[in-house]
Amino acid sequence: MSKEDYWELLRKEVIDEGLCTQCGTCVGLSKGKLRFEEKKGIPLPTLVEEKNSSDIEKSCYSGCPARYCSYPKLNRFVFKKEPKNWIPGITKASHIGYATDEKIRRNGASGGVITAMLVHLLQTKKITGVICLKMGAKVPYKAEPVVAKTEEEILACSQSIYSVTPVNTILEKSAKEKGPLAYVGLPDQVASIRKLQQQGHPSAANIKYVFGPYTGTQMYFEAIQSFLRSHSVKSEKEIVSLQYRAGEWPGYLQIKLKDGRVLKAEKFYYNYLIPFFITSSSLQVADFTNELTDISVGDAWSPKYESIKKGFSVVLARSEQGIELLREMEGKKSLSLEKISLKDALDMHGHMIDFKKRGSFIRNSWKKSSPDYGYQPQNIARSRIAVEFVLAAVFFTGKLRIARWVVEHLPLKIVGPCFNTLRLRWKNASKSTKRKGLWETKFIITEKKE
Ligand SMILES: Cc1cc2nc3c(=O)[nH]c(=O)nc-3n(C[C@H](O)[C@H](O)[C@H](O)COP(=O)(O)OP(=O)(O)OC[C@H]3O[C@@H](n4cnc5c(N)ncnc54)[C@H](O)[C@@H]3O)c2cc1C
Fold this sequence. Notes:
alpha+beta, binds flavin-adenine dinucleotide, 8-stranded mixed β-sheet, 3-stranded antiparallel β-sheet
């Protein structure tokens, strides 16, 4: 039998079907044979011309989380059991928290919890480094995956990056580290790491701790380019520094330019770009709370914390070593943690949980070929499917060149607040349908038992 062409499989089943989530694994494990190339603003893995595709190793395909990614199987591998509740995944404890080190808290995207955990693990010598994203590592407007090995390097990697950044392209390099390492990634990137660990692949063997942000929506870099154009800045090369969550929580987009100008947009105003530049992966992946991590962290959206500002995170501990870490840090007073019920923690994000745990499954069911997560909602009400048609129309319109042109030519002072008002109105109008039956949704296991 001739050798399987794994590039051909990946191309046919994932890339050509529009399922690639840009996790970066295939490129990272390809020994330079694959690279990301932008096609119509979307970065996609591409064969480097002169390289022979039959040499692409199996893990580039088997580590891909986009088409086949059995959550029941991965849960059994990571946590030795399947979740009772598929909405949050396995959760041992839920908290509201923040880093007590004011600098870490202020620099963080929400409460600085992820950065504080990484610093603690390094200080206590439980890890030798962290795979995370550093803004401006090569060019000021882009983030790159790095292995941060000092406290300063970890601090320089705090904050959220809302443009697509394939973390797992670093795997070949990070595999050379003795470790143990910690890893921070989005849900699809984490799922790929877990797949590789389950397969016993050496590239992920040195990763001991896995953390990750909740992940609602992400945008293509074109969103930043559009934002620049709407301020009459022609190229991203004019950028000196870019922060997606600058200033006090919840923060604002801040872009400093070579000519000394500083462009700012409040987080909720900058969100007007979401319908125009949302990634297909945000619409596809059903995991919002980063279910395969040891600890996952999101913004603590609640009027109580939002009125205090400063920065608060919602923190879900999923594994025993996750729980131990939180206990240790609480003991050392490096994290402030207040226990809350899982229900209260999830209630803060009902809208996004619905967007993923029902919305993603509806959207995926409309595709010719869709991801196989090994589980799915048993039944989704027709009224909820109708809501998804409205959203699909919004995203379809947002992709049109004319719509993007119009929004670019309207002043942000008007677009930002208008978008925010429309968003809140839509949220309120669709709330009852979106919440109806959400917490009672029954999920069925669809994976084929081996
Ligand atoms: C694309 C994206 C979408 C999000 N959507 C939501 C949402 O809808 N609701 C919500 O509550 N929270 C969301 N979050 C999470 C939130 O923005 C914070 O990341 C989270 O609350 C952790 O805050 P922190 O202060 O503890 O993290 P920090 O201490 O600031 O540390 C953040 C860590 O995450 C890493 N990181 C940042 N961006 C990325 C990325 N793109 N890929 C991989 N690693 C990254 C950094 O390198 C750093 O190590 C999102 C985050 C991202 C990146």
